[in-house]
Design brief:
With 263 residues, the protein is mainly alpha-helical. It has one domain (2-24, 32-262). 72% of the residues lie in helices and 0% in strands. It has helices spanning 2-10, 12-26, 35-55, 68-91, 93-96, 98-103, 110-133, 148-172, 175-189, 202-205, 213-226, 235-262. Helix 3 packs across helix 7 (110-133) and helix 8 (148-172) packs antiparallel against helix 9 (175-189). The longest helix is centred in the last third of the chain and has 28 residues, at 235-262. 34% of the residues are buried.
Length: 263
């Protein structure tokens, strides 16, 4: 693992320039430019908030603010969007860059790092937009906001570990990417993003203990919505993130020599 990270560090200029070029290609010929980075997830939140808050009269217990549910959605989407983007893009990163891998010599671990860097920049932009909007909606900064960098780091570590493992396996068995796309859709709805945990039946609520993303989303809710330190334990998602990262690096290192041939 240390050798892979050292190689990636030597090519940090390549990683950074690739992240910049990725944004340029995604935003080419766009009038709004970087605004699209935050408009897409905010539009999704607006749809959910309109339907569930207005039509279904969804409310949060303990908060007397008509925008509370919208902020609840924003906090959950902030966590999930980065997790899902890193996993989805990492699954196909080697396949999408097969031609580049065959023509150039560079550490292959740099490609997943480019995905992580690009997703992290997008998520930070969304976070800044959210933090600017929150006071307008009646949610003001608290000391608990200091937890956000740690929560982002845990989310990145968990997503990148899962993404690198699946991305490596997907090169040799393309069904992995297809199956995982379906699993991610199911995973979204079994994570308390669009609904509070207290509305779940007790039998189903116990299954959240096996979902490593659930404590992270709940921690985002605690910090951003309720202005308190995370009430859900973060040891489990941290342990899963560490195990998945170690397993991903092991599998990637063993498969690295055959990666280009399989492409």
């Amino acid at each position: 693992m240390n050798a892979l990270l050292a190689a990636a560090w030597r090519y940090r200029g390549f990683v950074i320039s690739s992240v910049v070029n990725d944004f340029r290609s995604r935003l080419a010929r766009s009038k709004l430019g970087t605004m699209w980075i935050v408009l897409h997830p905010l539009a999704q939140v607006l749809i959910f908030a309109t339907i569930l808050s207005s039509v279904l009269a969804a409310r949060l217990q303990g908060i007397d603010n008509k925008y509370a549910y919208a902020v609840y959605l924003v906090a959950g989407i902030l966590c999930w969007s980065m997790f899902a983007e890193i996993v989805q893009r990492s699954m196909t990163v080697f396949i999408d860059n097969g031609t580049l891998l065959k023509k150039m010599q560079f550490p292959r671990i740099a490609l997943p790092l480019i995905v992580v860097g690009s997703s992290l920049v997008s998520n930070v932009a969304l976070l800044l937009a959210i933090l600017l909007i929150l006071p307008v909606l009646g949610f003001y900064p608290t000391v608990a906001w200091a937890w956000i960098p740690l929560l982002m780091a845990l989310t990145v570590m968990l997503a990148s570990g899962i993404g690198l493992l699946l991305g490596t396996l997907n090169v040799f068995a393309r069904d992995v990417g297809q199956v995982m796309t379906i699993i991610l859709q199911f995973w979204f709805w079994v994570t308390p993003i669009v609904y509070p945990v207290n509305v779940l039946p007790e039998a189903f609520r116990s299954t959240l203990a096996f979902n490593p993303v659930a404590p992270l989303v709940m921690a985002y809710h605690d910090v951003i919505v309720y202005g308190r330190s995370p009430s859900a334990g973060l040891a489990y998602p941290a342990a899963v993130a560490f195990v998945m990262s170690a397993l991903a690096f092991f599998v990637f290192r063993r498969a690295s020599a055959e990666l280009v041939d399989a492409l």
